[in-house]
Chloride channel protein (Lates calcarifer), 1570 residues
Amino acid sequence: MANITKKVSWSSRADESGAAGEGTPLLNGSEQPRHSRQPSEGGSLCQIGRLSTVDLEEEITSDEESQRGRPKEIPHNEKLLSLKYESLDYDNIENQLFLEEERKMSYMGFRCLEISRWVVCGLIGFLTGLIACFIDIVVEQLAGIKYQVVKENIEKFTEVGGLSISLLLWAVLNSAIVMLGAIIVAFFEPIAAGSGIPQIKCYLNGIKIPRVVRLKTLVVKVGGVICSVVGGLAVGKVKTLISENRTCITFIFEYFRRDTEKRDFVSAGAAAGVSAAFGAPVGGVLFSLEEGASFWNQMLTWRIFFASMISTFTLNFFLSIYHNKPGELSNPGLINFGRFQGDSVAYNLYEIPLFIAMGAIGGLLGALFNVLNYWLTIFRIRYVHRPCLQVMEAMLVAAVTATVSFTMIYFSNDCQPLGPEHTEEYPLQLFCADGEYNSMATAFFNTPERSVRSLFHNQPGTYNPLTLGLFTLTYFFLACWTYGLAVSAGVFIPSLLIGAAWGRLCGILLATITPDGSIWADPGKYALIGAAAQLGGIVRMTLSLTVIMVEATGNVTYGLPIMLVLMTAKIVGDYFVEGLYDIHIKLQSVPFLHWEAPATSHWLTAREVMSSPVTCLNRIEKVGTIVDTLSNTSTNHNGFPVVVKVSGSDEPPKLCGLILRSQLIVLLKHKVFVELARSRLTQRKLQLKDFRDAYPRFPPIQSIHVSQDERECMMDLTEFMNATPYTVPQETSLPRVFKLFRALGLRHLVVVDDENRVVGLVTRKDLARYHLGKHGLEELQLAQT
Amino acid sequence: MANITKKVSWSSRADESGAAGEGTPLLNGSEQPRHSRQPSEGGSLCQIGRLSTVDLEEEITSDEESQRGRPKEIPHNEKLLSLKYESLDYDNIENQLFLEEERKMSYMGFRCLEISRWVVCGLIGFLTGLIACFIDIVVEQLAGIKYQVVKENIEKFTEVGGLSISLLLWAVLNSAIVMLGAIIVAFFEPIAAGSGIPQIKCYLNGIKIPRVVRLKTLVVKVGGVICSVVGGLAVGKVKTLISENRTCITFIFEYFRRDTEKRDFVSAGAAAGVSAAFGAPVGGVLFSLEEGASFWNQMLTWRIFFASMISTFTLNFFLSIYHNKPGELSNPGLINFGRFQGDSVAYNLYEIPLFIAMGAIGGLLGALFNVLNYWLTIFRIRYVHRPCLQVMEAMLVAAVTATVSFTMIYFSNDCQPLGPEHTEEYPLQLFCADGEYNSMATAFFNTPERSVRSLFHNQPGTYNPLTLGLFTLTYFFLACWTYGLAVSAGVFIPSLLIGAAWGRLCGILLATITPDGSIWADPGKYALIGAAAQLGGIVRMTLSLTVIMVEATGNVTYGLPIMLVLMTAKIVGDYFVEGLYDIHIKLQSVPFLHWEAPATSHWLTAREVMSSPVTCLNRIEKVGTIVDTLSNTSTNHNGFPVVVKVSGSDEPPKLCGLILRSQLIVLLKHKVFVELARSRLTQRKLQLKDFRDAYPRFPPIQSIHVSQDERECMMDLTEFMNATPYTVPQETSLPRVFKLFRALGLRHLVVVDDENRVVGLVTRKDLARYHLGKHGLEELQLAQT
């Protein structure tokens, strides 16, 4: 039980850059101060500097001790919200420095900036396309070699007996490749595990997931993907490449060194990734908007669209060269489902209910998948957390996958004639007659993407129902086991494959039970619907997924059926359990903000929600106080309201700004002190550049040495604080606070009383705490895990 | 010159419901009060009730007089901003009544609400589809009859001579039909004129365009569209139906009686309209988002998508019945461009520069079109403003169009063989040999939509270059003349037709100048690119237009070229002049808010931007004061900050809420007074229902009789005011104010000093005033036109 608190890999290492918590005191929620309009009471809520932190430390001691005493016993469940994740600052820090810079800038300057944003997006698209192309070619080459070797081996031993040697060869080959992939992921960059979509979802939601946009992650991810696909796991090669390649570019342009710009570029990267993967530029844009942007900005959307287009274009261009048809740009993206054309695309009104029923099946199967994977993930969090164990599990899965596939192929007697138009690259003859091939092998002995394509487009009669049924069953469990392994791999393509298999099965069954089979002539259509249903049931995306499917199949006719199917799958699936990505996000205790506040939260106001008391700083503050405040590891606040006392009055101080930990650290590092003792100003003039240079890895406070003399100095925060932070009154209802917070991408929202005095601070965690459970509004616990 | 101030028809009648201006005093901008942190000065900015309005009236007298003295002499230009347009309240009025209702509501209640929203969206989609279907069928039938009559007539007279009789018949027929359409539009509902897109753009932007969402407008519009298309004007039948049919539905559900919900449903309606018109559900959603939503809400987007899908589906379903293929749902939308399939869809890398060049041409031609139409519109505003003149102009255009078409056909000798696969429904033989038909007639003697299709898909060689060149030239000017007439008609299809014509011309020319003509085999491809370029050059949409084109042509391959073309066309066109819709919006002096604040506006702060002084009300206010404030026609404020004095202190009062004119009117109407004189509370308990019943046509203040006794009563606003209005400090920069305002869809934003006292009010007009002109930041004048 000692490992119960262990998290799955992509968050298991805390961010080195340190500080967590957005100014949320540990006492959060334990004792909400009584609200009063009288200044005397209201004022006491805001405690200044050192005094406050000392108070806090005293107050929290018991709480903290109890935590330290039994840190291992915090049960790992979804009722927790981790304090370790920071928010991104989507709101510009409009301090004097920033405004001065903006005001100095001419109109041409802004035009240039705009153009360079386009250039960056173009580069992102280009690089994404390039990487996608690289992965595609390498996977194709390596998988080709592997399947060729195994195929020859199997053919050699089919006659003479001793197929177990082939099995062994296959299993060992797979395990070895997967081991390689698992090792680089588990030991070098755990965050590169999985599909990358939950991480990107969180990042776009505004949560700083450590290391998700670093070059190293990208390299590991590309390597990991190649290994897992080639290793024959039930995974897809898509989606994993969507996000990591922009950090390097972003930093070329100094101006873009802030969270706002970075997040925009990550959106563009995510869109470009999806776009390259599916040849779906519009779908990519919608994906990025659906998951990320809480607002809609036309220019930003165009840039994202531009990145998507460039990415698809680059991929097509290089693939066309690779396929010796240079300049033929009408190739689709990385995942080619083939185009549905001609008569097979038509559907009839009476098929709509069938499609909807398939959507319901997809929802049910998806929920089952998610529940199984949820249990598995809990198991993994508890027992399989050491890197070497993770690598071993991955190898085991690879070996089991090979064995099961082999067994299925071995015992299958679904022989199909090897017609002139057959599209399989590695047909296995096995025990079939000459000129025939084993149909089960088409499904298993292939990259998943090719299998999907053959399920969509092969002639009716290519598969017999039993083959499809067995394949669905085994692949379902294999895919479920595979997702969440310490390898870089997505759930997209496996879901599509499962769905396509049972969808085609439905089509075949329908054709047999109806007397006039001609109209059901195309089981490929049902495979497509099944694929959509299964994927929708697992991941629960609707809008972007519809468009992605439409674009990936190159035909808009199926738009309505696919949409209906996805909606049905989502409704049915949501009845049982959340989407797969949401489950994994929840298991990470990430403070994820949904689109709207919980419906029944109108009775909560900012007063109940906010953290209080708040550590405030004076506009001219003693350096020692600042250092102590920042060093206070028990609170780890990241934002501090700045207050000013009306001179000569004994009224409590009023809010005049907000300053971030990172800014204070830069100020301390550059020793921007006013030595009042010598009564002359020696405050160094800092430029915005100094802050940008430090971005994004601000040193921890411990690394900054402040001498005892310097502690006595003062620091003037006027220039550096954001002088106009957004504020709300205490009576503001939670939905209203939520809307403001979400629409503007805030990190800190100051709650003030009617005299403009600070009474509390609302951060992401305070809002994410409230969520709608089965029994109405629930409140999650906050924990420093 | 007396009519210079007259507006074009869709805004020429002021909204009967009266009050305009969002609390913007007439003195706006003339004298900004000096800012100070001292309470004595700051407090004086907020004047209470009657006192303030009297002051104001006195102050403005001279200003007003000068306006009254020479109202005719205000030159009509784009440097004006009209005060007559109101804003929508996208922000919920969170007063006590509202919160009580929300708090009483159970989780199931919210679910039901959500479900009914879906139902409404479904109904919107269904009705939109139905109306689209109705228009399509009626247009097809009537146009069929007309063309048949004219064709027979022409054939009769071709042999015997006397074709001038045919011309006369054609011209008279057209004029008569157009007259009918123009009469209903000009006399009954001027707002139904034009394409409807500028109006919807404004509405979605948050501006209350009077009567744009009423049933009468819808009926007139449908009639008008049918008449103009059948009348043979250079117009398209799309886009005009996009928005009007939801008011009636919305009001079934009482809860939805607020601007927030209404605007959401209008978004859905707009999307459904585009979706039905082009068979482009995704394009419809993107259109609605690109033009409207300033934020992105997942659930809302899904609902919009749902409405789009249902609309396309309904249209397809009923059209399939009409075409005797019931249940065949794979038909595309109303505008069927035909599908690009097979080999013709491929394009090569070296064609990309050609496409981009065509985009540039499209941008140039589009800019020319817009400039011409701009001058024409100015001319119309000055001289053609009386309904009968408008009808006459429309008839003139119809007659000229018929004459020009006839002349072109008459003098054309482009005879083409009447092959078995010809698709023209009304081939005109004229002077061609038997078995041939006049190719020029295909383009002119047809509904524009059919002409586009034939330009896209007819075999190479169907048109000769001279025909296309002449056609482009004449149609360009005809379409330019037609747009802005007092008929319901859009610019979409004519633009596409012009573009398709010169695009096909480009394709043919390219095929002739290159030695190996085989790769240029398909001029239809170039027609498509040309159509996109021309349309992009005129309307300057990019993202949604790309998707619409892709969906309308049923092929995603052209995504990248179309996008590049649209972007080029936009960049080139923007260099010269704005998009057509933006020009028309500007000519209306509508306070349209763009996506972002002007780039160089960082030096402006809320203090400079805000209107001040502000008319404030006390929390418990004298009825007489309220009546006087509301009756003050010179200010016509719509929102009033509510302030409260700290009892027993002489400090200036502090902000405690915000109340709207419409709320005050309902309160007055229901006589919610506290008769302090009798020292008992007789304040009637009002329900939220009372406010909803009054929505959206609140009576003007003049219609409410308040006796002298009642004037002495007090009114307690506590329950009804929004107790937590959004506020900003005075130092907030314009971009920050803009962002907050736009992201939350605000109508009033209160500016407070650091003691929480009201110093100003920012409304839509204050923000829309600043815009980026050729010479940097410009400030528009506000005028009560």
The radius of gyration of chain A is 29 Å. Chain A touches chain B through 91 residues (CB under 8 Å).
